[in-house]
Design a protein that fits this description.
With 348 residues, the chain is of the alpha/beta class. Helices cover 31% and strands 22% of the residues. Strand 4 (64-72) and strand 5 (78-82) form a beta hairpin. Bound molecules: iron/sulfur cluster (2 copies). One iron/sulfur cluster (SF4) is lined by residues 248-251, 307, 320-326, 336.
Length: 348
């Protein structure tokens, strides 16, 4: 289902004002960087912004969350109290198509054979409103190489495209359609001129992307053959194990569980889920002291193999949507596009 409408830019704020009952999130500039935040003042929402440092993933899958609280009564009997997220409706504006595609990948992880009620509760109550990347928000964008596009609708409820004085607003899902129905009178039908300009905007947006992966479909097989190669030692030499690449990745989803005591006697506290990263040495540390990924090489290999081999083998998708954040933000300039280019030429 898609339903295209035209929204004059001056009607954007009146539309958002009609969304009473929704928490509104959007990219906002704070201390010189762009991040997704809950916005009260609509003037904070900007139609043009570079790539946000973090993806909107953190709104659906928070960096830290309490899963349940525990207590112990006088007889020593424990009680557990589940702390599921509230039922508040949310709308996130300005979602980049790569980040929306990444949400479809985390949906596989948290909604496959084991349903994660915390993730699902937030996901179901969240409407994703995307914005076509007329200009790539990062010089390291490469979404078309991994099955996406700067105007992909995948994972979005609405895709908006900026045509200068107006937006084309395309409701992709029923959730998106409902959001448009809150202010029907503000939207009009697209004209032939609108459709022509939209088609040009889409073509131009694709042509402006400068980076790409060569033959991405060959990567799973190539990576499998070079598992034991010393190539990984060389490529990982500079890694300082900061984990930025994975913390900022919209598709990474690994987490750790810890119990925090607020009282030791009687035992009382909470279980917390926190993002974790395969780039930390103790991520795979066993209680015996053995670590199957003891060095930087095995951890870098894991990051790339997970995204470009294992996930493809299990789910038929790359676990990367080409947002470019891990490249732009790595403090030692480890560049997965360059590494994967060399993978093609590697003699196993
Ligand atoms: S961001 Fe760069 S230095 Fe930091 S863990 Fe990732 S690859 Fe290593
Ligand atoms: S692996 Fe890098 S480029 Fe791919 S989605 Fe994650 S952060 Fe973006």
């Amino acid at each position: 289902m898609t339903m295209e409408k035209i929204l004059p830019k001056k009607s954007f704020a009146p539309w958002v004002k009609k969304l009473a009952g929704f928490e509104v999130y959007a990219p906002v500039e704070k201390d010189g960087v762009w991040i997704y935040e809950a916005v009260e003042d609509l003037k904070e929402i900007s139609p043009s912004y570079p790539n946000t440092v973090q993806a909107p993933k953190k709104i659906i899958f928070p960096q830290t969350e309490t899963l349940f609280e525990f207590d112990t009564d006088e007889e020593g009997q424990p009680t557990l109290t589940e702390t599921l997220p509230g039922k508040k409706d949310r709308v996130i504006f300005g979602v980049r198509p790569c980040d929306a595609r990444a949400a479809t990948l985390t949906d596989i992880v948290f909604g496959g054979t084991i349903n994660d009620p915390y993730y699902q509760a937030r996901r179901e109550k969240t409407v994703l409103v995307g914005l076509t990347c007329n200009h790539p928000p990062s010089p390291n964008c490469f979404c078309p190489s991994v099955g996406g596009s700067p105007h992909s609708r995948e994972g979005l409820d609405i895709l908006m495209t900026d045509l200068g004085d107006r937006y084309v607003v395309d409701a992709v899902t029923e959730k998106g359609e409902k959001l448009l129905s809150k202010a029907k009178n503000l939207f009009t039908k697209p004209t032939d001129r609108d459709r022509r300009e939209l088609a040009t905007a889409f073509t131009d947006s694709e042509q402006r992307i400068e980076r790409s992966l060569r033959d991405a479909n060959q990567l799973p097989g190539k990576l499998k053959k070079m598992f034991e190669s010393p190539f990984w030692d060389e490529k990982a030499l500079g890694c300082i194990r900061c984990g930025i690449c994975t913390y900022l990745c919209p598709a990474c989803h690994c987490f750790d569980l810890t119990d925090e005591l607020t009282s030791a006697s009687p035992p009382k506290g909470r279980r917390i889920r926190t993002w974790d990263t395969c780039q930390f040495p103790d991520f795979t540390m066993h209680s015996s002291g053995h670590n199957p990924r003891p060095d930087r090489a095995s951890r870098l290999r894991q990051r790339l193999n997970h995204k470009f081999q294992y996930f493809v083998e299990h789910h038929g998708e790359f676990q990367c949507t080409g947002c470019g954040r891990c490249i732009s933000r790595c403090p030692v300039s480890i560049d997965i596009i360059d590494i994967l280019e060399e993978v093609h030429d590697h003699e196993s």
